[in-house]
């Protein structure tokens, strides 16, 4: 079994607005496309109030943001090679829909991008400096192209 098949995925729709259009099979496909190792994940869709609360409490930023990734191994010194990536990825429906409209993208396209983006964060990628950002954006663009979506940064 390949690493891409070793996925435990929970999808939660605390905010149910996208439950019919952003389905579990789509989410699983997007996650697996961005998965480089076994993983145990929760993807949770929230409204602006919960998104703001999480961003404020965990990042010190008092506003709702599009995606938050909580990687359980972040800050760990040494993990076994076979340790799965464990993370919660939180998507704020209000911000996601607003950004999709502003960027003239479908909600599906933007959600796919944010899930891929969150998955890369869960696996240790970041965009703190220009070099990291360029690397991460390149990987996102490649994965999204494989999934049939346009370059989100074009």
UniProtKB/TrEMBL annotation:
- In short, the EC number is 3.1.-.-
Q: What is its main location?
A: cytoplasm
Q: Which Gene3D superfamilies match?
A: Metalloproteases ('zincins'), catalytic domain
Keyword check for Cytoplasm, yes or no.
yes
Query: Can you say where in the cell this protein is located?
Result: Cytoplasm
- How are cofactors bound according to the entry's free-text note? Binds 1 zinc ion.
Q: Which GO terms describe its biological process?
A: rRNA processing
Any one GO MF term held by the record is:
metalloendopeptidase activity
Cofactors per UniProt? Zn(2+)
Gene Ontology terms: cellular component = cytoplasm
Q: Which residues form the signal peptide?
A: none
EC class name: hydrolase
Residue positions annotated to bind Zn(2+) are 117, 121, 127
Per UniProt, the keywords (alphabetical) are: Cytoplasm, Endonuclease, Hydrolase, Metal-binding, Nuclease, Ribosome biogenesis, rRNA processing, Zinc
Q: Source organism's superkingdom?
A: Bacteria
Function, please?
Single strand-specific metallo-endoribonuclease involved in late-stage 70S ribosome quality control and in maturation of the 3' terminus of the 16S rRNA.
Q: Tell me the protein family, please.
A: Belongs to the endoribonuclease YbeY family.
Its recorded name reads: Endoribonuclease YbeY
Source species: Duganella guangzhouensis
